[in-house]
Amino acid sequence: MQEQAKDKVKKQFGKNAQKYVESVSHATSHDLDTLIEWVEPKSSSVVLDVATGGGHVVKKLAPLVQTVFVTDLTKEMLANTKNHLNDFNNLIYMIADAESLPFLDQSFDLVTCRIAPHHFPHPSKFIEEVARVLKPKGKFLLIDNVVPDDSELATFMNTFEKLRDDSHVRCLALEEWFELLKVNNVCVERFQVDKKEYDFPVWVERTTENQEQINKVNDYIYQAKQKCKTYYQVKESNGKIMNVSVDQCMIMGEKGE
């Protein structure tokens, strides 16, 4: 089951690599500036970016730190992203599984991972690996979509995400991330949760295979209970979904000594 999930990720991101480089929601979100403010990178910092996708975090961090190890599970994604980061000479590219990182213990001053963990089959293994490769007092910056505590609302979001993108596994709740960090000796220093709005036609087209799949996602959301539509700020026009908003969290933690 785990390998099947990762094969789906490779397939999805391999064929859509350029879309993730160009994605407005991935490339221009305000969280990219906020993460720099939060982690306060140093010129001596050695950084690991996990599941780099389009490399948007790396592009922000590279001018400010000593070295960034740029990793992704998908070779095609990593190769495509490298073409867009060729202005930097302090980047090292490696194919790597977020749940089995190919690095020695206590290797990094900072680990980042943005808009990717909902694709990981075992988030607990991911956090274990992050804690293992972080130096004592090292920082970890996580950004991802999260679900609310309400089980109905959580199921609704994870269902429409899975309908849209078969490589989606599960968005966790904020408290689940807090617990995983706590048991791995990473203390949460600050966090925030914001609404992130998607241009539905663009967002759904990025990962779907055909019009039939697009229609299934549209119909599922369109026919939802008002409770779900209200929470996810669904905007409709003539039977079509135009916008959907989800919760995105940013969490910064520090590894204990």
Characteristic key phrases:
alpha/beta, Rossmann fold, 8-stranded mixed beta sheet, Methyltransf_11, S-adenosylmethionine-dependent methyltransferase activity, Diverse_substrate_MTase, Methyltransferase family protein, methyltransferase
Characterize this entry briefly.
The chain is 43% helix and 27% strand. It has a single domain, classed as Rossmann fold (3-Layer(aba) Sandwich), CATH 3.40.50. It has 257 residues and is an alpha/beta fold.
What does this structure look like?
With 257 residues, this protein is of the alpha/beta class. The protein is 43% helix and 27% strand. The chain has a single domain, classed as Vaccinia Virus protein VP39 (Rossmann fold), CATH 3.40.50.150. The protein has 12 helices and 8 strands. Strands 1, 2, 3, 4, 5, 6, 7 and 8 form an 8-stranded mixed β-sheet that branches. β7 and β8 form a beta hairpin. α8 runs antiparallel to α11. The radius of gyration is 18 Å and the shape is globular. The model has no long low-confidence stretch (mean pLDDT 91).
**Main β sheet profile:** 8 strands, mixed
* Share of β-strand residues: 25-35%
**Cα separation of the termini:** 36 Å
Structural class by sheet pairing and helices? alpha/beta
Total of domains:
1
**What level of helicity do the residues show?**
40-55%
How many strands in all? 8
Family: Belongs to the methyltransferase superfamily.
InterPro entries: Diverse_substrate_MTase, Methyltransf_11, SAM-dependent_MTases_sf
Protein name: Methyltransferase family protein
GO molecular function, one term: S-adenosylmethionine-dependent methyltransferase activity
